[in-house]
Design a protein that fits this description.
The complex is a heterotrimer of chains A (about 750), B (about 160) and C (about 290).
Chain A lengths: L19 H6 L14 E7 L5 E7 L1 H5 L3 E5 L12 E3 L2 E3 L1 H8 L4 E2 L5 E7 L2 H10 L1 E6 L6 H5 L25 E9 L2 H6 L3 E9 L11 E6 L5 E5 L4 H12 L6 E5 L15 H11 L3 E4 L2 H7 L6 E9 L5 E13 L6 H7 L9 E9 L13 H19 L3 H8 L18 H9 L2 H4 L10 E11 L6 E7 L5 E5 L7 H13 L6 E5 L16 H28 L6 E4 L2 E4 L5 E4 H7 L8 E6 L7 E12 L4 E12 L6 H20 L30 E6 L20 H14 L5 E2 L3 H14 L1
Chain B lengths: L4 E7 L2 E7 L5 H8 L18 E4 L2 E4 L12 E3 L12 H8 L9 H14 L5 H7 L11 H14 L3
Parallel strand pairs in B: 1-5
Antiparallel strand pairs in B: 1-2, 3-4, 3-5
Chain C lengths: L4 E3 L4 H11 L3 E4 L5 H6 L7 E4 L9 E4 L3 E5 L4 H6 L1 H6 L1 H7 L5 H4 L4 H6 L7 H7 L3 E6 L2 E6 L4 E3 L2 E2 L6 E7 L6 E8 L10 E10 L2 E10 L6 E2 L1 H5 L8 H14 L10 H25 L1
Helix pairs in contact in C: 5-8, 10-11
The chains are: A alpha+beta (about 750), B alpha+beta (about 160), C alpha+beta (about 290).
């Protein structure tokens, strides 16, 4: 496969996105905007307790309220056996999926769904939910990952046994699984070190924080077919999960993907769709469910809080001699934290001979965690990247130089074993080193305010998975591109641009469409930074298929052989047997006489995934009296492979940095001693506002991915990894305190500063 | 229906009347009664700005206004920004600067930015950031939004 | 939200008669930026909302140099913030009003609503206490006045009887060489509820402080008037040591809790930091006059 960058005419330009006008005029239809005749409105009753046995549920008063049409409890769900079903990035356990959708005998977290109501208005549904009487028997709860690992901890799932242990155990536990990567001789490595740094870290549970609450509208038909409109990251994934949870054929469900108001991984799983389906089935009417913001925070999405221990040593030359990482991640109420990804990514930017990484997936009485942008990796990097910074500092080596000495390159073995293909980590380090930001003088501390600069790096694998695409040639010589990939941040544009590049059209002449589950071949979810890579790959192949068909059609018209026809710059021509040419527009008009319409098709499951690396630099200002941190300047650089639409690549980087800043400084799930989430709203779950951030400078480093025809690497996830560590390193430079807890909120930083001055 | 109230208001320059229950928010009325779904719900607590509308010249969260309070008022929503075939300069600049990703916060940002420029046609970057601090965006990191608003202001000032 | 009825009286008399008819079941609606959220959450359950915004007496905003400032209870904060006289004479009040929520919230929220909500963390309440503001309260039986520092009795509860409504605030005219300041601490730069808020107003005669009022928010069940802290400054110059001493007195009366907005220990610390900062700024402002 050859990447011929110089030839690109459309790739790398910045056309206006195709869905843009709909989104700036308010016409774009998100899930909550769907309205059907006779539609009912649903509400979900959620547990106020962190851990309790459900003794009884009395729905009679709710059902008696005028306007209430149906009430749903776990009795309405099929009882499923445990097991594991592979579903894209997510291994699914049908039993746990069902238990999370609707609590069965126990509620396992504050916000766990207990019942649902459908009524003629959302207000009536809300009143009805309050009339449902649930009798609970409170059970002791556990919310801290280390407490949950203890022998005497309250047990969430009595049936659970730890997988991945050297010896099979039959003990009740909250540890769902454990894993280890090890190589070399750790002890010898630490012995060879001139400096060893060791710290323990705690990171808080955080939420993806998409602005659009989860939603679903379902219309069940008496023929057993159901249509679901929902804002999901994967229509097919949503369909398959619904089928799994309800034990019905996937083909009985059509999922129509509505526009999606952000997801970041949190809208891959399902919460409302099966409830809407069952309520529609019970009532015979379309049913709409929308979560409140509090429900979103209490019951969906979060990514793991974690406890991480990092020990690393380096010799005088700055070479890392050994690295040991131990991490326990909160899974939430059911197995499935991203600790595996944490283990695989933690030390990946470095070429290491001696390492050991242990990971534990641990149940706690908090919502089931979901994917969140490079899941698992940001937690881990907070540990490893601050320890790397301290090693460099203690050895008197510039942190970027330290990365240059140790950095992974093509052929370096990853912690999990496989060797890297062509990657651009060192290129990102070089780019930051040469950036106007890093080249500018260190920020100077002013009166009362202390300033510092920090750097950190990150690695994310990116994903491939399955995608399908169709490229239809329109009668006027333009094209439409049909994919099954939810467009969460500009992938309609990138897919259209790839098709335009192949077809020799302008970006505006290709119309991208995101289709429902009956209108396109199977396509996995929008996640793993995979859409422009994998769906883009399918689009590339489908466009090539269309080109081949166009050549055949032209050959028919010219009574030539297809191989005599050349397709270039949006026109067919032949040089043998005469000198004829036709633009695509001319040819499109003649297709009816040349063998019929042209629809290129492709389905792919590409293997040549290009890993992504990022290196960031940040300047901060700390008010030592209050512990508050201001971000003064931020520059993110990343190996983006080939930026198809650079504006949206920059946008991915800037958005991820903003999320990373929130994670670093203020975002956290705050539970009280009863296990109730106390900040289930945007007032006290503090995501950055635009007054909290500066402009975010970006440098796109393009090391083309040899595994993709355009050179694309995934770009969406890796930029969230460095910010917390980079900010922690900058805080250290400002105030001399090594922060080991996220978020580095004002009270925590203030306390750390006070403790440091007390020691003096 | 006896508990519904008849309300007359002006929506994007057009006289509009509707019936609503007193407990229904202006957001709910706009979306569910009048079918103007461009205004979005993000939190229902006034913390995200996705439901921003201009109410008698003042930017407000329509989730914290009752539908009945719209009586005799003048409401502007995202649907009223464009003129017939021509986008408002803010809309155009949001597109040119790629100032949206998922787009759910975009209507609120556009309306808030319009209200800001109506009062302060030539804002500094800080004034833009302050003026839009009530609108949360989780996708963009705000960079391109702020640039789009500053650029739109320049264009509207003929610069 | 539960079902409600809605009235929009056009006069104070009409409002008072509605209120005396509904009693505990009625509640005044000003900007609604707290009330509607609380009703959705089921925290407050009034059956009738009486819209305060069309009552002329509650929309008064006037200043003169003898009587000072009159602010109707339902005047939206955006009007207050933009008013040239208020900006000139009461910068601390403008700071407080400008810190409530977003521009969107400030379009709707009011000093009256902020106070009647009864939150210990209300931003404008400490600013009003520092200025010595007085509430004018009316019912169908008559009128009375209440000092702002005496208005809130516990979180969410005030001295208002079921048939009473808050009409307006009267704020004394600023004396020569006097100034106020309000600061709060929040983790972000906008949108948050105060972790701690501190208001101060000082009057100088040359270098000597002749009057000082200090007030604290979010560190007790109600907003606090730190009387001793202010009194400690009277007759003294406002310098680093007198200010530090006043800040220490302010810290003594703070009885904060630990919650998702900060620990008790941190809040107590921040009372000291902010008291020093607001006194320093207020003194600078007073000297500049």
């Amino acid at each position: 496969m050859e990447v011929q960058e110089h030839k690109f005419k459309v790739i790398g330009t910045r056309p206006i996105r195709h869905d843009g006008v709909d989104k700036v005029t308010g016409r774009a239809k998100y899930g909550a905007d769907i309205s059907l005749p006779g539609m009912l409105h649903g509400r979900v009753l959620r547990s106020p307790h962190a851990h309790a046995r459900i003794k009884s549920i009395d729905t009679s008063a709710a059902l008696a309220l005028p306007g209430v049409k149906a009430v749903l409890t776990s009795e309405d769900f099929p009882k499923l056996a445990a097991g594991v079903v592979a579903m894209g990035e997510l291994p699914m356990n049908p039993r746990y999926l069902s238990m999370n959708l609707m609590a069965q005998d126990k509620v396992l977290y504050d916000g766990h769904a207990v019942a649902a109501v459908a009524a003629t208005s959302s207000h009536i549904a809300e009143e009805a939910v309050k009339l449902i009487k649930v009798e609970y028997e409170l059970l002791p709860h556990v919310q801290n990952v280390l407490d949950a690992m203890k022998d005497n901890a309250p047990i969430l799932l009595p049936e659970l046994r730890t997988s991945g242990t050297p010896e099979k155990s039959d003990k009740e536990t909250n540890i769902a699984s454990q894993l280890r990567f090890a190589r070399g001789d750790l002890e010898a490595g630490f012995k060879a070190a001139a400096v060893v740094v060791e710290h323990e870290f705690d990171t808080a549970m955080v939420h993806q924080g998409y602005i659009e609450p989860h939603n679903a509208v379902a219309q069940y038909n008496t023929d057993g077919q159901t249509t679901i409109w929902t804002s999901t990251q994967g229509a097919f994934t949503a369909r398959d999960q619904c089928a799994l949870a309800l034990d019905i054929p996937a083909s009985s469900i059509k999922v129509v993907p509505a526009e999606i108001g952000g997801g970041f991984g949190g809208k891959i799983g399902i919460y409302l769709e099966p409830l809407a389906l069952l309520l529609s089935k019970k009532t015979g009417k379309p049913v709409k469910l929308i979560m409140s913001r509090a429900d979103v925070l209490r019951a969906t999405g979060p990514t793991s809080g974690s406890h991480i221990r990092v020990k690393m040593g380096a010799n005088k030359a700055g070479k890392i001699t050994a690295a040991q990482v131990w991490m326990a991640y909160e899974a939430g109420a059911f197995p499935g934290s991203p600790v595996g990804a944490g283990c695989m990514t933690a030390l990946a930017p470095y070429d290491l001979e001696n390492l050991q990484i242990d990971g534990f997936d641990v149940l706690v009485n908090k919502p089931k965690t979901a994917a969140y942008r490079a899941p698992g990796s940001t937690n881990a990097a907070m540990g490893t990247e601050t320890v790397v910074d301290e090693l460099a500092e203690k050895l008197g080596i510039d942190p970027l130089e330290f990365r240059r000495i140790n950095g992974a390159k093509e052929g370096t073995a990853q912690p999990a074993g496989p060797k890297f293909p062509r990657i651009g980590f060192l290129e990102t380090v070089e780019a930051i080193k040469n950036s106007p930001h890093y080249q500018s003088p260190q920020p100077k501390s002013g009166k009362g305010k202390l300033k510092g600069r920090g750097v950190a790096s990150g690695f994310w694998f990116n994903a491939g998975f399955q995608s399908s695409a169709t490229v239809n040639i329109n009668t006027d010589g333009t094209a439409s591109v049909v994919t099954g990939s939810t467009d969460i941040g500009g992938t309609r544009a990138s897919c259209a641009m790839i098709a335009a590049e192949v077809l020799g059209l302008k970006a505006e002449e290709v119309h991208p469409v995101v289709a429902d589950t009956e209108s396109i071949g199977h396509t996995d979810m929008t996640g793993g930074s995979r859409v422009t890579f994998a769906t883009g790959y399918a689009v590339y192949e489908a466009a090539q298929d269309a080109v081949n068909q166009l050549k055949q059609r032209a050959a028919t018209l010219w009574k030539a052989k297809p191989e005599e026809v050349v397709y270039q710059d949006g026109a067919v021509s032949r040089t043998t047997n005469g000198n004829e040419s036709m633009t695509l527009k001319e040819l499109a008009g003649k297709l009816p006489r040349a063998g019929g319409p042209v629809a290129g098709r492709a389905s792919v499951n590409p293997r040549g995934v290009g890993p992504a690396f990022a290196t960031h630099v940040v300047d901060v200002e700390v008010d030592p009296e209050t512990g508050k941190v201001e971000i003064l300047r931020y520059t993110a650089t990343q190996d983006v492979g080939k930026a198809v639409h650079p504006s949206y690549v920059e946008g991915q980087m800037q958005g991820a940095v903003a999320q990373g800043v929130g994670w670093a400084l203020n975002e956290e799930y705050f539970y009280d001693e009863k296990g109730t989430l106390r900040n289930a709203g945007f007032l006290d779950y503090r995501m950055p506002t635009c007054l909290d951030l500066p402009m975010i400078e970006t440098i796109l480093v393009e090391v083309p991915n040899p595994g993709h025809p355009i050179g694309v690497r995934g770009v969406g996830e890796v930029p969230i990894i460095p910010p917390p560590a980079a900010i922690a390193n900058a805080i250290y430079r400002a105030v001399g305190v090594r922060m080991t807890e996220l978020p580095m909120s004002p009270p925590r930083l203030c306390k750390a500063i006070a403790e440091k001055s007390a020691k003096k | 229906m006896a508990n519904k109230v008849h309300v007359e208001t002006t929506l994007n320059g057009e006289a509009v009347e509707f019936l609503c229950e007193p407990r229904q928010s202006l957001l709910e009325v706009l979306r569910d009664v009048l079918g103007f779904t461009g205004t979005k719900e993000g939190c229902l607590t006034g913390d995200c700005g996705a439901c921003s509308v201009i109410l008698d010249g003042r930017i407000s969260c329509s989730c914290l206004v009752l539908g009945v309070e719209a009586q005799g008022k003048n409401i502007q929503t995202v649907e009223g920004l464009a003129q017939a075939d021509k986008l408002h300069p803010l809309q155009q600049k949001f597109l040119e600067h790629a100032a949206l990703q998922c787009g759910i916060c975009t209507p609120g940002f556009l309306v808030a930015a319009k209200a800001l420029l109506d009062r302060n046609p030539n804002p500094t970057e800080h004034e833009v950031r302050y003026g839009l601090a009530g609108n949360l965006c989780r996708c963009t990191g705000y960079d391109k939004i702020v640039r789009a608003v500053l650029d739109a202001a320049a264009v509207m000032q003929g610069r | 939200m539960h079902a409600i009825t809605y009235e929009s009286p056009k006069s104070l008399a009409q409002a008072l008669s509605l209120l005396s008819a509904t009693g505990e079941k009625g509640r005044l609606l000003a900007g609604g930026t707290d009330l509607l959220i609380q009703m959705r959450a089921g925290v407050r359950k009034p059956e009738q909302l009486i819209d305060a915004k069309s009552i002329p007496e509650l929309q008064v905003l006037s200043f003169n140099s003898q009587d000072g400032l009159r602010v109707g209870a339902a005047v939206p904060c955006c009007r207050l913030i933009e008013d040239p006289a208020v900006r000139q004479h009461y910068p601390g009040l403008v700071e407080a009003a400008g810190l409530i929520g977003s521009v969107q919230i400030q379009s709707r929220c009011s000093l009256g609503g902020n106070l009647c909500n009864g939150s210990p963390a209300a931003d404008t309440t400490p600013a009003l206490i520092a200025l010595g503001a007085v509430c004018h309260v009316a019912s169908s039986k008559g009128t009375r006045t209440v000092a702002v520092e005496d208005f809130v009795v516990s979180p969410g509860r005030t001295v208002l009887q079921a048939d009473e409504l808050l009409v307006e605030f009267r704020i004394p005219a600023p004396k020569p060489h006097s100034a106020d300041c309000y600061q709060r601490f929040i983790p972000r730069n906008e949108m948050d509820i105060a972790v701690v808020g501190v208001g101060a107003a000082v009057t100088l005669n040359g270098d000597t402080c002749t009057a000082a009022r200090i007030s604290l928010g979010a560190v007790a069940p109600t907003p606090l008037f730190a009387k001793e802290a202010g009194a400690s400054l009277v007759g003294k110059p406002l310098n680093e040591s007198t200010i530090a001493a006043a800040a220490a007195l302010a810290q003594q009366i703070a009885v904060p809790i630990t919650d998702m907005r900060g620990t008790a220990e941190y809040r107590k610390h921040m009372v000291g930091v902010l008291t020093r900062r607001v006194l320093t700024t207020a003194a600078e402002r007073a000297r500049a006059k």
